[in-house]
Amino acid sequence: MKINAVLPEKGRDLRLDLFRGVANWAIYLDHIPDNVVNWITTRNYGFSDAADLFVFISGYTASFVYARMMLERGFIVGATRLTKRVWQLYVAHIILFVIYIVSIGYVALRFSDPEIIHEFNLAGLAGDQAIETLRQGLLLKFKPVNLDVLPLYIVLMGLFPPVLWLMLRQPDLTLLASIGLWLVARQFDWNLRAYPSGVWYFNPYCWQVLFVFGSWCALGGAKRARWIVDHPVTLYLCVAYLVLALVMTMAGRFPDFGALFPRWLYSTFNPNDKTDLAPYRFLHFVVVAMMVVRFVPKEWSGLEWKVFDPLVVCGQQSLAVFCVGVFLSFVGHFELMMSSGSLLAQIFVSVSGIAVMTLVAYYISWSKRQDKPLPKPAVAKAP
C-alpha cells in the first residue's frame, strides 16, 4: 500500500518539550486540592486541561519517533520498539503504584488517619481483598486517585502499532475512523471496567482520538491544514470559542455567576465531561493547538530563552518527571492537611514540588550525558 503520510522533519521540536513540561507542572498543581496556585493552570479558563495536552503530545511524539523506524526497518521492528516503550511505561507505573500506596498507607497508620485510605481509593487494600486488589492493580483495573493517566497512556501505546501502520498509509481515513470510534463509544457508553466497581476515569475508547489526532498532526496533517490555521476568519472563530469556554468554565466555578445564564446553555458545558471527552472539550483543545501553531512557530527564537529551560528539560524527561510529580502531589496534599493550609503554605508546597521535579529532570539529563563516550582527542599530525 502506498505511503501517503509525510514524515516529520528530523530534529527536535522544542515546542513539544516546552508544552510537555507545562503539562507535567500543571498536572502536579491540579492534583493538589485546595491549592490557590493551581488557578494558574488552563483547566480554570477553558474546557480542556493538561491531561489533553499530555495525551496529544504523546501521540505526536510516538509517531515522530517510531514512524520512520517502521518505514525503514519494517512493521515488526517498529512494533517491537513500541512494545519496549510500553513495557517501560508499565514498569514505571508499577513502581509508582507500589511507592504511592505504601506511602499513603504509612501516613494513614503513622498519623491514625484512616480517612486518607478512603480519600485515595485504597480501602480495598485494607481488608480481605488486598491480594485481589493488588492483582487488579497489576492488570491496570484498580487505580488509586491520581494514578489514571499512565494506564491510559499504556493502553494507547500498546494498541498503537497497527494504528501507526494505517496512519502511514491512510492518515485521513485513520483519523476519521478514530473520530468514529470516539463518537460511537460516547453514544453507547463503551468503557473499560474498573475494580472494584465503576469504569476508567479516562475512557480509552474516547481519549484515543486525541492520541491519534496528535499522530495525524505529526505525519503531515498539520501541514495540510495550515491554510485553515492561517485563514483570517479562523482567528476570529477561535477567539470567540475561547471566550465562550472561559465564560462557561467560570460559570461552573462560581454558581452565582452561572445562574445568570439560561439553564440549557449552562448545562451544555457543566459539568465538564472529562471521562468521555466531550466534543466541546476536544474542540477547545484543537482551537488552542491552532492558536499555538499560528503564534508560536517552530523556528521562534524565544523557545531557546533561558527562562524556558526548566520547562523544556522537564518535557524532555517527561516520564520520570510525571511520576515524581504524582507522588509529590500526595506529599503536598498531606502537608497542607497537616499544616494551616495558609496561602503561604500553598505557595511553598507548589513551588518546592516544581523545584524537585525540575532538579530530577536536570539530574537525569546530566546523567545521560555522562553515559555518552567522551570525544576522542585530536591526534596531532606530523609536520
What does this structure look like?
- The protein is mostly helical and 383 residues long.
- It has one domain.
- Helix content is 69%, strand content 0%.
- It contains 17 helices and no strands.
- Helix 3 packs across helix 7 (160-169), helix 3 runs parallel beside helix 16 (318-338) and helix 15 crosses helix 17 (343-371).
- The chain is globular and about 65 Å long.
Keywords:
383 residues, mainly alpha
Number of helices: 17
**Radius of gyration of CA atoms, rounded to a whole number:** 22 Å
**Strand-and-helix sequence, N→C?**
HHHHHHHHHHHHHHHHH
Global mean pLDDT = 93
Number of domains: 1
Determine the strand fraction and express it as a percent band: under 5%
N-to-C span: 59 Å
Helix content: 55-70%
Shape: globular
Give the low-pLDDT segments.
none
Number of strands: 0
Q: Give the biggest beta sheet.
A: none
Can you lay out the helices and strands and say which pair or pack?
Blueprint (H helix, E strand, L loop, with lengths): L13 H17 L19 H24 L1 H36 L4 H5 L10 H9 L10 H10 L1 H10 L1 H18 L15 H21 L1 H5 L1 H22 L1 H4 L4 H7 L9 H17 L13 H8 L1 H21 L4 H29 L12
Helix pairs in contact: 1-2, 1-15, 1-16, 2-3, 2-9, 3-6, 3-7, 3-16, 7-8, 7-9, 8-9, 11-14, 15-17, 16-17
Briefly, what is this?
By secondary structure, the chain is mainly alpha-helical.
